[in-house]
């Protein structure tokens, strides 16, 4: 009975609504944790800049080691099963994070949630692309991004309110919520268009090797995919330090005023996240309304080059500004550009990847980003300890400059994959 439920939905929901529900629920639950977890690590666990980056590096090393194996599992066995396993592991990780406030526990959390994330990374996009059809994915991914931003807004409000009572509560509820989401998907998530490797072949290392070699061959054959992989690598080099240290920059370099009679940083960071989410949502809606053709273009290099340049400028603004609100404005602009770019880039990559290796190739792309974070994170974290967080952020901005140039120089693919 359990085996059947893990493979086949008992009461299936249509793929696109199911994908939107998964997106909304998981994003809301992530927001519960991510609104408070960095503040929690600084103010409760007491991590310094290098420890903050090392925590992230453990996560990225885990992603590096597990992205391709879990992607191959999704291609050989079931994207649905891979997603379910991932959600359960993520739920367990966030429960541990909220319950044990030590540096060692934070490292263990990154290991568990990193493995869980790799089971969902690539598999989710590959699942919905197979179920819906690659040619229809640009508007689906864009709508999902907008739903995600709305869910982030709701989750951030909830995290701020719950964090006032106890900063650990949002993380514990997030962990429990992921377990409940996995249970709901067991009953409702369809998988009708995925064709697994025959049972007598799927457990062999040879089959896994074929899937890996097939994915690698596609990456080498398609110039667009190679370029997008290089962009993921460079983005990873810069992102680990930025993602971990922007919170430190705000907490250490600016005095937060009283809000609603409270001096709690968690309240302010919930507000910062809310405003950033609203700005990103409005930017996404505006771009899709003003220029839908550019968003759905088969080769959106100019738009992505512009959005990349805006992200770099946002990091510079956050690093150099001596005013809290100007620094936050730069942060929000950077986030808005990223929110617009993510679904466009995801749809572009999916169009150029064949179905039978899609999850493997998408996991390889995630691994490229992880490699960048592993290589770039610790040196930038050490730079932050020896100089300043501001210097580290500026270094991160410099690293991202080639991304704009690569996007601008990319040439249209001769053949678009279905």
From TrEMBL:
InterPro entries: MFS (IPR011701), MFS_DHA3_Transporter (IPR053160), MFS_dom (IPR020846), MFS_trans_sf (IPR036259). Gene3D superfamilies: MFS general substrate transporter like domains. Residues 1-414 form the Major facilitator superfamily (MFS) profile domain. Keywords: Membrane, Transmembrane, Transmembrane helix. It is found in: Cell membrane. It is a multi-pass membrane protein. Pfam families: MFS_1 (PF07690). The chain crosses the membrane at residues 12-32, 52-74, 81-100, 147-165, 171-189, 266-291, 303-326, 389-408. This is DHA3 family tetracycline resistance protein-like MFS transporter. The lineage of its organism: Bacteria, Bacillati, Actinomycetota, Actinomycetes, Propionibacteriales.
């Amino acid at each position: 009975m359990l085996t059947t439920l893990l493979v086949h939905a008992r009461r299936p929901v249509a793929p696109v609504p199911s994908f939107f529900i998964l997106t909304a629920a998981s994003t809301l639950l992530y927001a519960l944790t991510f609104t408070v977890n960095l503040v929690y690590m600084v103010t409760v666990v007491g991590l310094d800049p290098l420890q903050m980056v090392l925590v992230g590096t453990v996560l990225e090393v885990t992603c590096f080691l597990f992205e391709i194996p879990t992607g191959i599992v999704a291609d050989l066995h079931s994207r649905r099963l891979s997603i379910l396993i991932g959600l359960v592991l993520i739920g367990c990780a966030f429960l541990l994070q909220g319950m044990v406030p030590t540096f060692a526990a934070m490292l263990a959390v990154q290991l568990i949630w990193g493995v869980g994330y790799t089971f969902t990374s690539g598999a989710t996009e590959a699942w919905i692309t197979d179920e819906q059809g690659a040619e229809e994915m640009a508007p689906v991914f864009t709508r999902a991004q907008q739903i995600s931003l709305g869910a982030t807004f709701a989750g951030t409000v909830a995290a701020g309110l719950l964090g006032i009572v106890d900063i650990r509560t949002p993380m514990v509820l997030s962990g429990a919520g992921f377990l409940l989401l996995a249970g709901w998907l067991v009953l409702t998530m369809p998988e009708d268009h995925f064709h697994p490797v025959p049972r007598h072949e799927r457990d062999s290392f040879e089959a896994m090797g074929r899937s890996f070699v097939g994915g690698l061959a596609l990456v080498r054959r398609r110039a667009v995919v190679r370029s997008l992989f290089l962009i993921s690598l460079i983005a990873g080099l810069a992102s680990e330090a930025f993602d971990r240290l922007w919170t430190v920059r705000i907490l250490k370099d600016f005095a937060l005023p009283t809000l609603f009679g409270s001096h709690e940083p968690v309240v302010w960071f919930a507000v910062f996240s809310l405003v950033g989410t609203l700005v990103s949502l409005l930017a996404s809606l505006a771009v899709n309304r003003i220029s839908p053709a550019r968003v759905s273009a088969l080769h959106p290099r100019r738009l992505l080059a512009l959005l990349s340049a805006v992200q770099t400028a946002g990091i510079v603004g956050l690093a150099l500004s001596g005013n809290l609100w100007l620094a936050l404005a730069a942060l929000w602009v950077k986030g808005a550009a990223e929110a617009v770019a993510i679904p466009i880039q995801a749809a572009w990559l999916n169009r150029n990847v064949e179905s039978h290796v899609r999850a493997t190739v998408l996991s390889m792309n995630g691994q490229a980003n992880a490699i960048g974070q592993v290589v770039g994170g610790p040196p930038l974290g050490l730079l932050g300890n020896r100089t300043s967080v501001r210097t580290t952020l500026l270094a991160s901005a410099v690293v991202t400059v080639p991304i704009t140039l690569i996007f601008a120089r990319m040439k249209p693919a001769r053949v678009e994959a279905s």
